[in-house]
Amino acid sequence: MSKQTLQLLTENFSIHSMDETADIPASVFRADVFFIAKTPDELSIVCPSTIHIDSFATESNWRALEVVGPLGFSLTGIMANISGVLAKANVSIFAISTYDTDYILVKQLQVDDAIKALKKDGYHFLN
């Protein structure tokens, strides 16, 4: 399988953990890119760091690498391969998938190492 093309999004993201009954701020829905996940135990929101959310836990300074899609559901191993390359480079990730593609969030301090490791492994990047 040929290596996918990735692109680094310009936004700096924060990952918020909230009570499962919390209201989602309207400002989140106005962002160009955001992710929301809810379980019986929590509500997680990933959004640009410029959006203030009153959450009980926040991880800031994440950057997003987008796998340029759309990706077909029959494709296998994309996230496993990318996360494996980054694990070997000691880069921690937070992975998110959508209907069309995958996003790999890495801490701002490790983004250069992540891109270098992925390029060395044959991944392509859009400028």
UniProtKB/TrEMBL annotation:
Source superkingdom: Bacteria
The CASTOR ACT domain extends over 59-119
Please give the Pfam families that the UniProt record associates with this protein. Answer: ACT_7 (PF13840)
- Extract the PANTHER family matched here: CASTOR ACT DOMAIN-CONTAINING PROTEIN, CHROMOSOME 1, WHOLE GENOME SHOTGUN SEQUENCE
**Record-given protein name:** ACT domain-containing protein
